[in-house]
Fold:
Amino acid sequence: MLDVVIRLAIIVAAFLVLPLLVGQTEHKVMAHMQSRLGPMYAGGFHGWAQLIADGVKFVQKEDIIPAAADRTIFKIAPAVALVPYLVVLIVIPVGDGLVGVDLDAGLFFVLAVMGVGVLGAIMAGWASANKYSVLGGMRAAAQLMSYELPLVLAASSVAMAAGTLSLSGILDEWQWWWLPWQALGGVVFFVAGLAELRRPPFDMPIADSEIIMGPMTEYAGIRFALFMLAEYAGIVVLGALTAVLFLGGWHGPLLPGPVWTLIKIGVLAFVVIWVRVSYPRMREDQLQRLAWVGLVPLALLQLALTGVVKVVMA
Amino acid sequence: MNFASPAFWPPTTQEIVFLLLGVIAVGSAVLVVTTRQLVHAALWLVVSFGALAGGYLVLTAEFVAWVQILIYVGAIVVLLLFGIMLTRAPIGRSADLDSGNQIAALVVGVATAGVLVSVLVAGFRHAYMPLTPGAGAAKPLGSSIFRTWVLPFEALSVLLLAALIGAIVLSRTDIRGR
Structure:
């Protein structure tokens, strides 16, 4: 019992700290890539406390709900967006035997719960009673529907290779040559995951230059901060999943397992930020085209490749 | 499949949880058809599907539960919401949501439920299965589908493929009239 409590406490702590670290890194990395300095004053050393200061500011702000909004749905939408990412962290293994709960169908659990998170954006978009919000919510829904398929297909390729759906089981089976073998699936999974998080260049649903802030337009104060937290928690979860499924998770030379997991998550989070700075926003038709003409056939190809190698090896 | 009939009193924790999930599933399903707010109906459907998945979990059908969430909540309800928001999604109550076929729909619904329940009760009244954890995991499920039930599985695949091709033919405007 105590063991479970400690594990859950560590997971909640990681859930509260890692997204803030990613957020602060994004401030600094984006700034330096654009020849700026980013936050420099809060907390003294290179503005390390900027996000804590932001959090204090968000808590103090007035919690505004538009008069025409659907109040209940408007209020619970941020929680629907945030909680799934916390739940997902419970089943992600960070080291050999270090996992909150080892589920037999862990892979499906993760994909199912992450799909629920998108409902938060759709609910927020509709309940705000704002035409920009509804447009953003619809775009989020359309994006989820097209990118869920390549995401699930790429993930099932790894499950086929390992012969199990358990995330710990997949890592137990993992060998170094899976890196080139599953590389195509890894790219598809990461890109589709990025699209599900609605991060640039897939940020058509929140495109600030045309629909202000999409589903979050009417949100202020702590509820807006929860949406932001959900975005960064999503980056952590996507990095962790890609690391576990395609990069060998805690496998690695010299350093202990959990350190390797954190390094891989960190590198992937950096890539997410890097992509945001480097690429312009994709148009809605380009988004759909990339999913159906690009990623789905590639994911099917990866599935076929996995099957052939699996049969030849057996 | 015939084991000794278990005692129903006192109820075990699983039975209580299962009953509560059933109440939530049925209650939210009733709200889906009675609510006067269109989008709320879709969201109550999420609650109903979630409770159903919880029911599968209590019956140790872990894999089916997660697939239920992935497909129904993650894809079907999102598609429904997209469709509603694309056509009309007013905030607040709509007056014109009641169909004239209310009574007929009620009769058909109650009759279908009656047939299903009476078939289940008549066929499986004395069939009891012990719930062993892991019996509904991915591996036993996969081997029973692809060994014992492979023919129905393939038949269903052909049916789905036909529907898929039909959908493509219907939605493509450039191949019509040939």
About this structure: Residues 2-28+61-313 of chain A form one domain. Chain A has a mean pLDDT of 87. The interface with chain B takes residues 68-70, 73, 103-105, 108-109, 111-113, 115-116, 118-119, 122-123, 125-127, 129, 134, 137-138, 141-142, 144-145, 148, 152, 164-165 of chain A (CB under 8 Å). Residues 164 and 204 of chain A are 36 Å apart (CA to CA).
